[in-house]
Design a protein that fits this description.
Structural class: alpha+beta
Largest sheet: 5 strands, mixed
InterPro entries: HATPase_C_sf (IPR036890), HATPase_dom (IPR003594), His_kinase_dom (IPR005467), Sensor_HK_TwoCompSys (IPR050482), Sig_transdc_His_kin_sub3_dim/P (IPR011712)
Bound molecules: adenosine-5'-triphosphate, magnesium ion
Number of strands: 5
Strand order of the largest sheet: 1-2-3-5-4
Number of domains: 2
CATH superfamily of the largest domain: Histidine kinase-like ATPase, C-terminal domain
Helix content: 55-70%
CATH class of the largest domain: Alpha Beta
Pfam families: HATPase_c (PF02518), HisKA_3 (PF07730)
Distance between the termini: 38 Å
Protein name: Histidine kinase domain-containing protein
Keywords: Kinase, Transferase, Two-component regulatory system
GO molecular function: phosphorelay sensor kinase activity; protein dimerization activity
CATH architecture of the largest domain: 2-Layer Sandwich
Shape: globular
Order of helices and strands: HHHHEHEEHEE
Number of helices: 6
Strand content: 5-15%
Amino acid sequence: MGRERLMWAGMTTGKDDRALRRRLARRLIAVQEEQRLRLSRELHDDLGQMLASVALELHNVRAGTEGMDGRLERAAMLVDRLSAKVHDAAWNLRPADLDRLGLRASVEDLATMLCSQLGIPCEMDLEALSNPLPAETALTLYRVAQEALTNIGKHAQPSRISVTAHIQDDRMRLTIEDDGRGFDGRAELGPGHLGLAGMRERLALVGGELTVETATMKGTTVYADVPLAH
Ligand SMILES: Nc1ncnc2c1ncn2[C@@H]1O[C@H](COP(=O)(O)OP(=O)(O)OP(=O)(O)O)[C@@H](O)[C@H]1O
Ligand SMILES: [Mg+2]
């Protein structure tokens, strides 16, 4: 009897623990989204503006001697590159404008931007994303698409990308596929790689699941499956 009660108590604690962990994880994600917004604004509004002013000064100022003018010109070019990087970082950090644009247009924007940066064709069929989804699920799919596309830009060197969404039964599947370098999916990832793990954790919080199919030099396909109602 005592033993039974102990086990029962243990199970309750386990369940409570899980509920607490989920609540904490949700809160963490909300804080993360707030921080992204703040950082994105600071980068864009403060740093971005100041860098633009410095670049303007540097492009206009002339020292009069050939050597010094060359150095000023190089400094101006470096500041231009720094400005572009700050702009990209602010763009990547900015919160999803899902309320205004909707999930479909937001994901289309992400894919279009990456493909134009890489100069490659992008196949899209995202009609299914126009279906209503719980807000948390929509934001999760947006962040998954963002990370998967960022990974393609950073690691894949593809010649084409495809981003599609389909509904089957009561689940939505977002598929992001590239024909790039792929990777060894079984290899242990070091501590510096948070993207895939983050996608997996965020999807689990909305009852979803991440599947990655990949092989070296054979491209990568990322599937994000979520329930339509959560
Ligand atoms: N589409 C892809 N094509 C080729 N390799 C990929 C692709 N996606 C992920 N990888 C490989 O998987 C690794 C882990 O990806 P993950 O997103 O977890 O980390 P990361 O991109 O290296 O760093 P982080 O996302 O934390 O900035 C990458 O370092 C890369 O080697
Ligand atoms: Mg990544």
